[in-house]
Amino acid sequence: MDARARLRAYLEQRRELGEDEYVLDSMSVEQALSALGALQTGAVAPRQRVPALREPGTGGSAADRPGIPPNIPTQASTEEAPAPSPPPQAAPDVRLETAPEEPMVARKLPEGLVVGQPNGTLFEENPFADVSSITALAKVIEECTRCPLYRTATHAVPGDGRKGAGLMCVGEAPGATEDETGHPFVGAAGQLLTKILGAIQLTRDDVFIANVLKHRPPGNRNPTPDEVRACSPYLLRQIEIVRPRVILALGTFAAQTLLDTKTPIGKLRGMVHRYFGVPLIVTYHPAALLRNPAWKRPTWEDVQLARRVLDSPHR
Ligand code: URA
Description:
About 35% of the residues lie in helices and about 10% in strands. By secondary structure, it is of the alpha/beta class. It has a six-stranded mixed beta sheet with strand order 1-5-6-4-2-3, with helices on both faces. Helix 1 (about 5-15) packs antiparallel against helix 2. The termini are far apart. Uracil binds near residues 173, 174, 175, 211 and 287.
């Protein structure tokens, strides 16, 4: 198979898997297939969004992706990957700040996964159930020895924000700058997150920003299941205290961990999941956007959805 045929087979498979946001510099699968001559423009009905997903799971890595043909690189499908080679057609210049307003108001919110029950004590067995403020919980986190990560970290990074913040952003784990400063999302990815929030008229003071892990894994390696288990009660208690109206899961790791699924991020986006009754929206990690600007547009759509849910009286 020549390169063109392989690319075509790959895109067709992506499309069959329901992944229309596998973009090559802002080109959708549909557009790329049309450019390759594989689709007549308008001849194929647009793909429907995947309906409510209820896949039980244990969390896991974005690398577990089905059905990618051999010899076809998976870069375009993973957050960690560099941008793929240029598409055969000029891509629009999409900036988070200037993307056009979408007429979302009339559309029903697409429902996604449901984790936990609303209106209960969120986390009955939580060892920190009696820690009643964000500040007190931060102190506990700063002294945490529940997993070995405290030994290699410089500072714990409990999270920034206040009780009652409408939006809670949840990332993966502190990086080097966060470890140095003790604050979440303060490096390059954090600066982009600030801009992303600005695109929906929010400042960092309006939101609570936290991570699944509160200590940095050495060398930014992936968190282990044991570390996640040890650290989860902190995030859960933060959610319970803050009571955000919307949770924004940043990236595959946070999304799959919170939603307890291995479903790829591309299929978790674009719908409103429920995390113990709290609406949860999934988007790409800002660090992934820095490497792949083509994900700016889908991210812009995701945060518009978050804004819409925040503004909705019927959350
Ligand atoms: N990446 C994350 O997931 N969290 C941070 O705080 C910084 C970078």
